[in-house]
Amino acid sequence: MRFESTLPSPPEPLAILLLGPTGSGKTALSLALGERFDGEIVSCDSVAVYRGMDLGSAKPGAEEQARLPHHLIDVADPDQLFTAGEYSRQAREALAAIAARGRMPIVTGGTGLYLRALTEGLFAGPARQDALRERLQKGLERSLQRQSTNWLQRILARLDPASAERIHANDTPKLIRAIEICLAGRKPMSEVLGDAALARDPLTGFQLLKIGLNPPRAALYDRLNHRCAAMFAAGLVEETRELLNRFGPTQALDSLGYRQAASVITRSASEVEAIAAAQQGHRNYAKRQLTWFRREKDIHWLASFGDWPESIREAVELVEAKVVARVEQRG
């Protein structure tokens, strides 16, 4: 006769998800929590994955990375495609390895799509259609020569008004992918995504504690303005020039900060103009990040910067409460 054990299952390991807009102090808080709770950092940043893109991504510096193990930083060259799906695969491997070592994974970053891919999984979607992408890219270039704006967004609006409303007019990769999905699926991308929802592969095996940073808006914008100016003063234009010489113009090098630095190299803008454009771009990006993260469930929001003592104290209390609950569950 077979008897089933009545002993409770061991609690799943705890993983911290530390999210928030750019410039909110996520790195500082992640290091404080990691050092307090024997953690390792898993970056969740779509630019920090690229080698050599240091100043513009504001990735943790050498001294910060020396304090704790970091993962998913400098894992690809700027001319390599690094998708949200690839991020999810590598990040899940990192989480499993960290937990196996008996340490606490702390996922830290502001790329909402990467976070969603990690926690909820992504559907495979229609395969890339390179010929279609090339036609769309050439059509976009012709429209820009005619000084016609929002060409891709107008195409998407005819195919899928809901997605066209959601995707920013300047986000060329997402617009092209949305058009691609609409044409391949023969229906709006929003419907294709809905049909594929059940095919996703959510993260399992972890208790997730989501902590969000939402510092005062005016203070955040002031910090972003100073950080952008500091990036240029530290040599962002030179870093961009070296990367362009080595890899040529790539999608990664069209990211925020590098695009403005490149405008100085091509002499289409002065450095003063480029800094102002980067500052505005970072402020806009912070707003979009907060809009995205507000759609996430079960986030414990802290109304301050991650390097402020009150944020560290509140975050430590949240983690300690989870740790105590796990000990009690273990019995």
What does this structure look like?
With 331 residues, the protein is of the alpha/beta class. It folds into 2 domains: 14-122 and 200-330, 3-Layer(aba) Sandwich (Rossmann fold); 130-198, Histone, subunit A (Orthogonal Bundle), CATH 1.10.20. The protein is built from 14 helices and 6 strands. The chain has a 6-stranded parallel beta sheet, with helices on both faces. α2 links the parallel β2 and β3 (70-71). α1 (26-37) runs parallel beside α14 (309-330), α11 (236-247) crosses α12 and α12 packs antiparallel against α13. The model has no long low-confidence stretch (mean pLDDT 90).
Kindly report the average pLDDT value: 90
Q: What portion of residues belong to β-strands?
A: 5-15%
The CATH architecture name of the largest domain reads: 3-Layer(aba) Sandwich
Proportion of residues in helical segments? 40-55%
Computed over alpha carbons, the radius of gyration is 21 Å
Put simply, the count of helices is 14
Cα end-to-end separation? 28 Å
Number of strands: 6
Which sequence of SSEs, written as H and E, runs from N to C? Answer: EHEHEHEHHHHHHEHHHHEH
What structural category characterises the helix and strand content?
A: alpha/beta
| CATH homologous superfamily assignment of the largest domain | P-loop containing nucleotide triphosphate hydrolases
